[in-house]
Amino acid sequence: MDIENLTINKIHQGLASKEFSALELAQAHLARIEKNDKGIFSFLTLAKEQALWQAKAVDKLLAQGSQVSLLAGVPCAVKDNMMVENVKCTAGSRMLENYVAPYDATTVKELKDAGAVILGKTNLDEFAMGSSTENSAFGPTKNPHDLKRVAGGSSGGSAAAVAANMAVFSLGSDTGGSIRLPSSFCGVVGLKPTYGAVSRYGLIAFASSFDQIGPLAKTVEDCQIVFDAIKGRDEKDSTSVNPKSQIPNPKFEIRNLKIGVPKEYFVEGTDPGVEKVIKAAIKKYEDMGTEIIQVSLPHTEYALACYYIIVPSEASANLARYDGVKYGHSEAKDAKRKEKNLLDVYLQSREKGFGAEVKRRIMLGTYALSAGYYDAYYLRAQKVRQLIKQDFDNAFGKVDVIFTPTSPTTAFRLGEKTDDPLTMYLADIFTVSVNLAGLPALSLPVGKAGNLPVGLQIIGRPFEEHKILEVGKKYHVA
Ligand code: GLN
Q1: Residue 224: what are its φ and ψ, rounded to 5°?
Q2: Among all residues, which ones are annotated catalytic?
Q3: What is the model's pLDDT at position 246?
Q4: What separation in Å is there between the alpha carbon of 265 and the centre of ligand 1?
Q5: What residue's CA is closest to ligand 1, atom 4?
Q6: Phi, psi angle pair for 380, to nearest 5°
Q7: Distance CA 384, CA 280 (A)
Q8: Domains and CATH numbers, the chain
């Protein structure tokens, strides 16, 4: 079995032709994780027993001659902010260090129902707040292309696990770039679906009007297969919808495509190596007969400021539930095992349970929402959010998809940005607008600058995931 080149379709064929069993596949991946993950640290928890049990169940079905789905027996990984029943779910935080998920997230249930084999839970920035996975309370994930560099964040573990062939695909979550940025840094394909396309039930909430779950995989085809398995309306998430337009258009022809390139994304500040690779990718699409049109997204310059007001505001509300009483880390008793008063329990549990970035976000958000400042910050940011969305609506009146770099740089060095939160936030400059507008976007590896991967971001109209996936597929064919 050639573990490095395995894709979902190859696994499906290999299982059907009995080239390998689902159990062998799971064991081979677990062995690879045990051997290779020490230096990378993409997994926080392995679900070995459950994985082997799931694999055996698939083998049993195959032995009975039953039809199995494409995902049956496929070894995958899940970001540690999504519930997998009876497996720890830490969100990368001391606060939930010993928390065991009591149920499956809807996406996880869908993967399990399809027969996918969940190997374990992947590392992330604490509560998904960050761009490098260095905010994980348990240590950073390293980039498999260069162990001195970050894997990107916050789904760094999910991206590194796929890049190092320790999982065939993984699930990540994207609030402001957390699927796309690590995909770009690690050279894998990552899809952030339209807000509402995938259920958020069982995802630990960060900023609820932004959060979306999506796949990271080695190929666009694999991303599409996983997306098709997890998308759609879920009664347990009232913001999820069942879009009509999710059926691939059989008449899709690349030469009829109009590609928008926003001038605001090609300004000073982007690494020249990255810009060269992105421009070469755009040229490749032009050579396929597409029309390249310059568009303008004039409010782009306000996107980061707007994001870093609204997201911490939502986070401060969502994280209020970690009070040291209901669940999670608790400082309810003092050294002499005496009960403390309630306020001390709240204060001390949150003081010890949360890391610095999470506290920073809670303070920022609480401030932006407080009486007297609400109008000046939160309300104004909501208005800017609307303008950013309108920019995209206008652009999509002229073009079918929009191309930008996923990130202004390739993977940076570990520790390079940890002392300065604002520099870290700048890594999100090309990804946050998509979340503010609720759009789908793909990060596609299109080359390298030096020895490090570069991702092209392909943004689509709401619920046009299939179009951006079709566009992405053409890159490798051409
Ligand atoms: N880096 C961004 C932030 O820290 C995005 C995080 C995410 O998408 N989860 O908020």
Answers
A1: -65, -45
A2: 79, 154, 178
A3: 60
A4: 19
A5: 130
A6: -65, -40
A7: 33
A8: 8-245 (3.90.1300.10)
Pairing of strands 189-192, 441-449: antiparallel
pTM tops 0.85: yes
List the structure tokens of 396. 């999509």
Ligand 1 centre to CA of 377 (Å) is: 19
> What residue has token string 């809807």?
106
Q: What's the rounded Cα separation, in Å, for the pair 180 and 173?
A: 9
From 410, 363, 377, 428, select the one nearest 175 (Cα to Cα). 428
Q: 141, 92 in Cβ contact below 8 A?
A: no
- Sequence letter at residue 19: E
Query: CA-to-CA distance for 142 and 263, rounded, in angstroms?
Result: 33
Separation CA 355–CA 93 (nearest Å): 7
pLDDT along the chain (478 residues), means of 10: 93 97 98 98 98 98 96 98 98 98 98 98 98 98 98 98 98 98 98 98 98 98 97 97 69 90 92 97 97 98 98 98 92 81 94 98 97 94 98 98 98 96 94 98 98 98 96 86
The ligand 1 atom nearest the CA atom of 131: 1
Which position has the token pair 């677990």? 30
Give the Å distance between the CA of 207 and the centre of ligand 1: 9
